[in-house]
Amino acid sequence: MRIRDHYIALSTIVHKEIRRFLRIWMQTLLPPAITMTLYFIIFGNLIGSRIGEMGGFGYMEFIVPGLIMMSVITNSYGNVVSSFYGAKFQRNVEEMMVAPVPPSVILIGFVLGGVARGLGVGFIVTCLSLFFTDLQIHNLAVVMSVVLLTSIVFALGGFINAIYANSFDDISIIPVFVLTPLTYLGGVFYSIQLLPEFWQQVSQINPILYMVNTFRYGILGVSDIDLRLAFAIILLFIALLYSYALYLLRTGKGIRS
Amino acid sequence: MPQALSIRGLKKTYDNGFEALKGIDLDVQQGDFFALLGPNGAGKSTTLGIVSTLINKSAGTVSVFGHDVDTDPVAAKRLMGVVPQEFNFNQFEKVRDIVVTQGGYYGMPVGEARDSADHYLQALGLWDKRDTVSRMLSGGMKRRLMIARALIHQPQLLILDEPTAGVDIELRRSMWEFLQKINAAGTTIILTTHYLEEAESLCRHIAIIDRGEIRANTSKRELLRQLTHETFVLDLAQSLTGLPQLDGYSTELDGDHTLIVEVGQEQGLSGVFAQLQQQGIEVASMRNKTNRLEELFVRLVEKNLES
Q1: What is the dihedral of CA B285, B288, B289, B295, to 10 degrees?
Q2: Does A56 touch chain B (CB under 8 A)?
Q3: Is A1 a residue whose pLDDT tops 60?
Q4: A98 → closest Cβ in B53, B87, B101
Q5: CB proximity A33 to B under 8 Å
Q6: Are A218 and A139 in contact (CB under 8 A)?
Q7: Nearest Cα to B87, choosing from B170, B157, B187, B163?
Q8: pTM of the predicted model as reported, rounded to 2 decimal places
Q9: A100, B107: Cβ pair inside 8 Å?
């Protein structure tokens, strides 16, 4: 009985989250489509044609997996951080807290909402990329699993950010000052083989490098890093972030006085 | 039969050191209509916030129909519906969606939640607004929306924190009727209010809380019995030039047509009228200066401040 009730509660949260980002599609789905199209045109077509090959592929082919992943990361994170902080700000998070919804269901519900937007935007960007390049998939299982797991990692990150946030400024600090630089330095636009030895080593502490390269392997069949290590790191991040987010939710950090 | 609500040794100290609750005990019987009264900052909302698990307590226990909110929160929450003081729904969602979504949180399948939402939206006069975005509603409608949302799963205990704040008199009375109806149907109701007339009209038991401590907790009848004096305002048929002497009564003239008389419980009013008649003073109308509960409330709180 309780499992069925929890399932209904989970499904309610997920539907509410999907309804939310679809309702404001001009703010959630359209901007990444426009931004990524500009990336494809400017970096892929205009500049890419002068760059030549990267990692054995045309520059456009090389950056498409990274740009898809970048949109998945930023949208998974952005959906949860804005939605959960909005629920805190308007206090409608209390609707869930007074109801018999376990913290784990609330957390998973918001994460799945973030994953839905991340994957939705990833799909839109993938479709747009087909106007610029022929996308061949080298390993579908790797593509699907790494994009899903990466989306979960950043949805969890967005949730933790929202719990600590006390203002709308607080929900933009991490995406602007941490997430974007790490993504740009995570091998979206270049192979780390181009970097001097020292910076190659430094790059390897950037978790996004593993996600982007694993995804690129799934599409192109080339990667700068070991895939097993990449999956291990992603799963480790999921376990750590999930446990910490659940702990914060259970103790009421940021939502209960 | 377990109490609808049982609170033991409840304490709350906020992070800034403010001691909002100093170890209160409170029982509410099943089927009761119970008022928790107190001045601003007395601890009413903190108490209800802890009961509804929106505020962490510092010490003590809370159980709802015998289910401890810490050890058996799912069962306890299932039996409660909560109407908070502040509007706490998504301002961008439609009215019906807000109520149906709340049903989902309680494990109600969509069809069942829709039927229940439609029933309460109709009962609370919100049916015409079901597809309106909630931020477009008036203050009174928003309050009724929160009541509909709290009732979606048909709770046995309804907690209302100042449900009629900012609501006009006509609407307030229609909300009273609605609450009396669901109480008569078996729902236990606990409310806090600043309108003491509301508590006097609706509630059978009343607790008065002040500065984190329960000052009185008894039936409304017993509480009103503690009122040793009542103050009456007499509107006189003719104007007076001086204060009339009424033996045994404390009097005060308010303008030249209004006499204020304090009457002890054992004295009664007939003595006042007899003496006024002897002096040839005719009374046109009479009323309580404040409502009786308000008078008692003010005295209890003032006594506490003095001590």
Answers
A1: 170
A2: no
A3: no
A4: B53
A5: no
A6: yes
A7: B163
A8: 0.86
A9: yes
CB contact under 8 A, A4 and B107: yes
List strands edge to edge, sheet with B80-83. Answer: B80-83, B157-161, B188-192, B33-37, B205-210, B213-219
Residue A75's pLDDT is 96
Asked if A3 has any chain B CB less than 8 Å from its own CB, the reply is: no
Interface pTM (ipTM) of the complex? 0.90
Structure confidence by residue, pLDDT tens digits, B240-275: 878 888 888 888 888 888 888 888 877 778 888 888
Residue keyed to tokens 């006390």: A166
For A169-195, the pLDDT digits (tens) are 999 999 999 998 998 888 888 888 888
Query: 3-state DSSP call for residue B13?
Result: strand
Question: Residue B18: which H helix or E strand, with range?
Answer: none
Q: Chain A partners of B154 at a C-beta cutoff of 8 Å?
A: none
Is the CA virtual torsion A85, B163, B160, B141 positive or negative?
Answer: negative
Q: Are strands B229-236 and B283-288 parallel, antiparallel or unpaired?
A: antiparallel
Interface of B with A (CB under 8 A): 14-15, 49, 52-56, 73-75, 77-78, 80, 82, 84, 86-92, 97, 101-102, 104-109, 149
Question: Any idea of the CA torsion for B275, B276, B278, B280, to the nearest 10 degrees?
Answer: 170
Q: How many CB pairs lie under 8 A apart between chains A and B?
A: 79
Show residues of chain A in contact with B92, CB under 8 Å: 23
| Nearest CA among B126, B120, B154 for reference residue B141 | B126
Write down the pLDDT at residue B304.
64
pLDDT of residue A106: 97
Q: If you average pLDDT over residues A149-157, what whole number do you get?
A: 97
pLDDT at B100: 98
What residues have CB less than 8 Å from B135, skipping those under 6 apart?
A: B91, B92
- Chain B contact set for A2 (CB, 8 A): 74, 107
Q: Give the amino acid at B101.
A: T
Chosen from A10, A17, A18, A92 to mutate, greatest number of chain B CBs within 10 A: A92
Rounded CA separation B254/B261 (Å): 11
Cβ within 8 Å of residue A251, ≥6 positions away? none
Q: Which residues of B touch A88 (CB under 8 A)?
A: none
For chain A, what percentages of helix, strand and coil (3-state, to nearest 5) are there?
80, 0, 20
Min Cα distance A57 → chain B (Å) is: 47
Mean pLDDT by runs of 10 across the 307 residues of chain B is 94 95 96 92 93 95 96 95 94 96 96 97 95 94 96 97 84 90 96 84 91 90 75 86 84 86 81 88 84 71 64
Residue that is written with structure tokens 């009542």 in the block? B230
